[in-house]
Design goal:
By secondary structure, the protein is mainly β. 5% of the residues lie in helices and 25% in strands. The chain has helices at residues 154-157, 166-169; strands at 8-9, 14-15, 22-23, 27-28, 33-34, 39-40, 45-46, 51-52, 57-58, 62-64, 69-70, 75-76, 102-104, 109-110, 115-116, 121-122, 127-128, 133-134, 143-145, 150-151. The protein has an 8-stranded mixed beta sheet, with no helix packed on it. Strands 1-4-7-10-13-16 form a 6-stranded parallel beta sheet, with no helix packed on it. Strands 3-6-9 form a 3-stranded parallel beta sheet, with no helix packed on it. A hairpin with a 4-residue loop joins strand 19 and strand 20. The N and C termini lie far apart (37 Å).
């Protein structure tokens, strides 16, 4: 699997087992770490000091801001109505669908095996629980989980105390 010549890598980017990733036409910020079996497509942007864990897929149209954690096996999408063919049966081309952009705000964390549907914003400092399916915007600092992902109730988040803010989420538990 390649890292093509059109990839823009920032300073001190660490790619574990570079022969086992697929990066093309993307931008990766300074000091970001990328695990094995990760694919980052053309037009995707990864910020500085991020951690992209193994087996994750980041497609065209996704912007991940600085200091974001992406767990193992996280999948992003970029098409609301994916199809293999058009109505008349010919293979679908780039002109046959509309790219939907997705943004992940600074300091957010996305748990392993989550799926992020296209066209959403995950707010700064938000946390997405493992295996969640994010179908709509996540407010800054929110904790979401489930299928579909929902903001956890006050009782469920009480254990986090003030850790729901972007600044607090950077502190250890």
């Amino acid at each position: 699997m390649p890292i093509t010549n059109d990839v823009q890598l920032g300073r001190d980017v660490r790619i574990f087992h570079a022969e086992l990733v697929n990066l093309y036409g993307c931008t990766v910020g300074d000091e970001t770490r990328i695990g094995t079996f990760v694919e980052i497509q053309a037009g995707a942007t990864i910020g500085a000091r991020c951690k992209i864990s193994s087996h994750s897929f980041i497609c065209e149209g996704v912007t991940i801001e600085d200091e974001v954690f992406v767990g193992h096996g996280v999948m992003f999408t970029n098409d609301k109505h994916p199809k293999a063919t058009t109505a008349d049966g010919r293979p679908q081309q780039a002109s046959d669908w509309t790219l939907q952009r997705t943004r992940v705000g600074r300091g957010a964390s996305i748990g392993s095996n989550s799926t992020i549907l296209c066209g959403v914003t995950i707010g700064e400092g938000a946390s997405v629980g493992a295996s969640a399916v994010v179908t709509r915007d996540v407010p800054p600092g929110a904790v979401v989980a489930g299928v579909p992902a929902r903001v956890l109730s006050a009782a469920e988040t009480a254990v986090l105390g003030d850790r729901g803010s972007a600044e607090a989420l950077r502190k250890p538990f």
